[in-house]
Design brief:
Blueprint: E1 4-5, H1 6-9, E2 11-16, H2 30-49, E3 52-63, E4 71-82, E5 86-97, E6 103-116, E7 128-129, H3 133-170
Length: 172
């Protein structure tokens, strides 16, 4: 399978924030920003895989500054790492005040998506071709996050097994 470059799947999406996106004080809800992040990230992953994708995990969403009604919000999503069927996508969110022209970095997120075949099963995706030192750095950081996710999943599974064993022993 031929690899694809980061730029082949990078997505830039933008949307004007309106009153239905916000609370009565004019601040856009975090959930609205999270939905936009998931949409942009999923689009980049689907563009890379050329298949349907599902969100497998969200490692982190960091909100840096508020978004307001009237802000023009831009999401830039690009792949950081590709596994056999999974892809980590980084999303950067910026908000522009259309009156002043000031642009603020408002949020960042790392999401993992899994590519699905026509039967809804995980499928292999093209490898990621890294062209710049920044892309290689982002890939190394994504690999470290993946190792952490795997370790956390092992701990969670061990905890679940202990709880199930305790429940069986207590007759619950």
């Amino acid at each position: 399978m031929q690899g694809k470059t980061v730029s082949e799947s990078t997505v830039n999406m933008a949307q004007l924030m309106t009153p239905e996106d916000a609370n009565p004080a004019g601040n856009v809800h975090g959930g609205v920003i999270m939905r936009l992040i998931d949409n942009a990230g999923g689009t980049a992953a689907a563009r890379h895989a050329r298949s349907n994708v599902v969100t497998a995990s969200i490692d982190r969403i960091s909100f840096h500054s508020p978004v307001f009604i009237g802000d023009f919000v831009t999401m830039k999503a690009s792949l950081n790492m590709v596994g056999r069927s999974s892809m980590e996508v980084g999303v950067r969110v910026e908000a522009e005040n259309l009156i002043t022209g000031k642009v603020r970095h408002t949020a960042s997120a790392y999401l993992t998506f899994v590519a699905l075949d026509a039967q809804g099963r995980p499928m292999a995706v093209p490898p990621l071709v890294l062209e710049t030192e920044d892309q290689r750095r982002r890939n190394r950081e994504a690999q470290a996050r993946r190792r952490t996710r795997i370790e956390e999943r092992k701990k969670e599974e061990a905890c679940q097994r202990r709880e199930e064993r305790r429940d069986r022993e207590s007759g619950a």
